[in-house]
Design a protein that fits this description.
The protein has 10 helices and 10 strands. It has 251 residues and is an alpha/beta fold. β1 and β2 (16-27) form a beta hairpin. Keywords: ATP-binding, Nucleotide-binding, Transport.
């Protein structure tokens, strides 16, 4: 079943057009990578898929129906089903709040759980990302960048979503921690049947986390397909240039 779609979507910031006639789809359990240089439109696509912006032409579809901010029932189901993971684990967590408050925010804002039920779901989410139970009573400044990103992922999964939309989720982390977080996302996706859409400049991250890849250039899709095909046998010259630019260790 197709969960999320863009049909002929465009977008502009003022007079600067950043997306032009973009179409893509994300099925249940699918993992999709969005790659391209800065300014290609990757993060804007994520904003459209999260319902944080409205396309200028075209549509965003959820479960085959156009997303409508005026349809409260649809938007509540959408918000519970589609959760973001942001790039910077240092700025995405409120330093004034305890971790249980941070992780439980989707439960409160969407009215999904309260009291003992909410605390149980918070504990389950923290356990799912490999953090101990006492994490809930602590504050963000007590954790490393990798641990903070795990907390952000716990916040994203506490509502039991169907899709995670991640904007450069490992770019602020060191290499070892980056691998651990990518492995965590892959495990959560497979164990829970989640869809994953991930924006990244790092083609190795896309290769390890995503089954399909969309390549963007100047707001247009220039290539898409199975990640192994796109990265190992690219058809578009721009994609070949991106792949060739990946640093390799000297022999």
């Amino acid at each position: 079943m197709t969960l999320l779609e863009l049909h002929g979507a465009g977008f502009a910031y003022g007079s600067r057009r950043v997306l032009d006639d973009v179409s893509l789809s994300i099925d249940e359990g699918d993992s999709l990578g969005l790659v391209g240089e800065s300014g290609a439109g990757k993060s804007t696509i994520l904003r459209l898929l999260l319902g944080l912006a409205t396309p200028l032409g075209g549509q965003v579809l959820f479960e085959g129906t156009a997303l409508s901010p005026r349809d409260r029932a649809q938007m509540r189901r959408f918000r519970a089903s589609v959760q973001p993971i942001f790039q910077d684990p240092y700025s995405s967590l409120d330093p004034r709040q305890r971790i249980d408050r941070i992780v439980g925010e989707p439960l409160r804002s969407l009215g999904l759980a309260s009291g003992a039920d909410a605390q149980r779901r918070i504990s389950e989410a923290l356990d799912a990302v490999g953090l101990p139970a006492d994490t809930a009573r602590r504050y963000p400044h007590e954790f490393s960048g990798g641990q903070r990103q795990r907390i952000a992922i716990a916040r994203a999964v506490v509502s039991r979503p169907r899709a995670l939309l991640a904007d450069e989720p490992v770019s602020a982390l060191d290499v070892t921690t980056r691998v651990q977080v990518l492995e965590l996302l892959d495990r959560l996706r497979r164990e829970n049947g989640l869809s994953l859409v991930m924006v990244s400049h790092d083609l190795t991250a896309i290769a390890s986390a995503c089954d399909r890849t969309v390549v963007l250039k100047d707001g247009r899709v220039v290539e898409q397909g199975a990640t192994s095909d796109v990265l190992h046998a690219p058809q578009d010259p721009y994609t070949r240039a991106l792949v060739d630019a990946v640093p390799r260790l000297p022999r």
